[in-house]
Design a protein that fits this description.
mainly alpha; 10 helices; 73% helix
Amino acid sequence: WLKLKLLAPRYCGKPPPMEDLSPTYVKFLLGGGYTALLGVNYASLAGKIGAPNAQISKVYPSPVTPAGFAFSIWGPIFLLQGAGVAALLSDALPVEAMRAVFPYWFGTWIWQNCWQASFVSLPLADKSRKDKIFRTLLACALQLLAAQSCMTVTAQRLKGLEETSGLRSAVLDFPSGLNAGWLGAASGIGVSLALQYWPRGDWITPNRSAVLLSTVCCYGAGVTWALGQGNSWGFGLGYCLATSWACFGLTKAETSPEVVKKVAKFGMGVFALLGVSCIAS
């Protein structure tokens, strides 16, 4: 009776900690989450759940939205994460790595799917209900921020592992950094769009857009410096490449004012140097 009483606070009414979950159960959820991610994105590209993202983005432009070609980065992100999932499911990487990655990759994918569902609900023709559009865009921005936060925590968990290998850096750290860096840029786009449809008037100006981009870059530089060095250098390199790519896309975007392009060019240089520091760490 005493033993049961002592164990009760740990097991009654609380979810079991990650260490107590069966590896088979974790693998099932990891594989299922990745499959769902691919399914939702395929449905979006095929126009089965609404207009494709590219079509919606044309209707809702932003001063900090990169040129269309920049969004091709999702291909490498999904492929590399697929390689990471395959390595974890096949036990090519230790179970500790799977426990570190699983809840936060899984959370990121859920938030990305939620964002997709919200984004396709935006009206393409009748934009008279600005209050409704604002609420939808605000939800999109918050979902992107939540996804980015999940992927950033992944770096913290990976950095705490003693095991390091080239495989881990290539299929766990690096794609986590790519995803986190691009989600950082996407979060900036989401915030910009929400502020454009602020019920009391468009809050976005060229200078404010430049400040927003600078804030995203400063945040990214801090994340890279804190979490992308040493045994998690792959995360830092991925974050720098994704952010540099987003900045490059901004220099080619027709909707970006000149002041935003100047910040983007400076950001490319900063993240190039940070990427080198990650490799050298």
